[in-house]
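G., the chain you wanted modeled:
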Amino acid sequence: MSSDTPAEAAPGRVVLLTTSHRVAPGLLSWPAWQALHAADRVLCADGAHPQLPHLREAGIAVEEAAPTAEEVVDACAGGRTVVVVARGEGEPALTDGLARLAGGGRVRMPELELLPASYDLPGARLLDLVQVMDRIRAECPWSSLQTHKGLAKYGIEEAYELVEAIEEGDRDELREELGDVLLQVVFHARIAEEHPEQPFSVDDVAAGIVDKLIHRHPHVFGDATAATPEEVKEHWLRTKAVEKRRTSVTEGIPLGQPALALAAKLASRVRTAGLDVPPPRTDGIGYELLTLAIRAEEEGIDPEAALRAAARAYRDAVLAAESAPGS
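Predicted structure as tokens:
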């Protein structure tokens, strides 16, 4: 029969409390507050941890200390609970030390619990992107000199690379290219903050598109109904025309876009508006291409994507011909 007393036999508990820097300090989960108030000791190795002022204001006695694994195990002796408020990168030295002690089999280990005290909301990593962009804009010799006009070509390039990733069906490439496009948005918004007369931020950009989406989706956020995608599109264009006070379905169509995409966009606007406008009956390859683009749009085919697919097939045929024996 063991001579250990119940207090000596109880190994205690270590709670590693993790928090997200993307959530306002002090906004902790209820289980986290319960663990903090019930702990025999609360330790934090980072004296500048953003949670410390809020914990102390709530009456939590936090010790600024970076104990070793052995010291934490000793502090848990007798069934005591020690809460360690982790730093942003976690506590790798402590957790590695505890794992080493447990693996040695000579120390009776306390119960170890990982307790997330706050969770990121969906989209929280966007805050990291904004912070990184702020620092790059301030400290990078190249980024600090960029302008909207100077970056415009990159926006076009990234958009085309995104389209290529979509058409190729490469999921890894798609994720990367979406990030590159997002970077362009955040970069331009960061530059816009510095305008002396009409500054705006990425929050203003996001607020604008949120308002627009809500306003143009009354079948989602209001009392309107839309049973088909066509009805949604009709309402979108009608609302857009009222907002921008447009008198023609052609207004707002950028004429500088690729020609096939331009032709398809015009055809889509005409068809959606219920207009009967046949293409000009004029000879020439341009008008033949226009007629093909209109036909493709009527059949639900993106002529730009269709031509790119055909061009890729032609490229493959060229490569095959180049690699053929005797070529």
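The longest strand covers residues 13-18.

Shout if anything looks off.
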